[in-house]
Amino acid sequence: MTANTMTAPLAKPGADEGRIGLRANLRHIGALVRRNALQIKHDPESMFDVLLMPVIFILLFTYVFGGAIAGKGNQPEYIQRLVPGMMAMMGMNIAMAVGMGVNEDFRKGVMDRFRTMPIARSSVLIAKIVVEIGRMLIATAILLGMGFLLGLEIRGTIPEFLGAIVLSTAFGAALMWIFILLGLTVRTPQAVQGMAMVVLMPLQFGSSIFAPPTSMPGWLEGFTQVNPVSNLADAARALINGQGAVAHPTLVTLGWAVAITAVTMPLAVSKFRKKT
């Protein structure tokens, strides 16, 4: 056989992904994204959290707690505070679902099949992130749609409004790596959910999403000010309302997103390779 008729051998299962080119990596990610999207198509119930959670939460906090927090009759103005903050909350809850999904895929043996294929190990996890970002954007769109029905106004510019969506999505995508790592570490999806709630509840309710920090006790106000979720909520609120400090909370949020991704993404990929 001549050199011209020889073909390059396929990469061995478990090959070092450093040998897989960028084009092949992107092709693997695209194929896996399609697989995950088809899985949602065949299991539409998996979209219930994305479709119903934004509606339930915005109605609950507006009409049950809005009067107590903002004062009776001030719900329309409270909407301007609540909806931008809840954009951060959507990303956190969907990030938790990613960890549960990865854990369940391992329990079913799906991930073991992927690890025997000649594909980059990171492509499996990145494809998960891409699909969940799509779910997050759908949840955000429903949240904003409900907000507009309840009186939300875009008081800033359209680019600022889109910037708030991008910022929330970037932070939510970074959190997904934490929960993927958690899903690869603990044994059951229930354990992922339980540990995630222990972390998420203080971050969500000990933040500026629902109430101004000045109304809280001193120790809680201090925690709220350093809480990255507060920075995201404040940045999104300033961008949508067209007032308030934007640069500082935006830079802090982006810094957290980059730092979280830089630390947890390599750990998650390494854990994925080694998990038995």
Automatic annotation (TrEMBL):
Residues 45-275 form the ABC transmembrane type-2 domain. The keyword Ligase does not apply. The keyword Cell membrane applies. GO terms for molecular function: ABC-type transporter activity. Keywords: Antibiotic resistance, Cell membrane, Membrane, Transmembrane, Transmembrane helix, Transport. It is found in: Cell membrane; Membrane. PANTHER family: NODULATION PROTEIN J (PTHR43229:SF2). One of its GO terms (cellular component) is ATP-binding cassette (ABC) transporter complex. One of its GO terms (biological process) is response to antibiotic. It holds the Pfam family ABC2_membrane. It is a multi-pass membrane protein. Belongs to the ABC-2 integral membrane protein family. It comes from Streptomyces lydicus. This is Transport permease protein. The chain crosses the membrane at residues 50-70, 82-103, 124-149, 161-184, 191-211, 251-269.
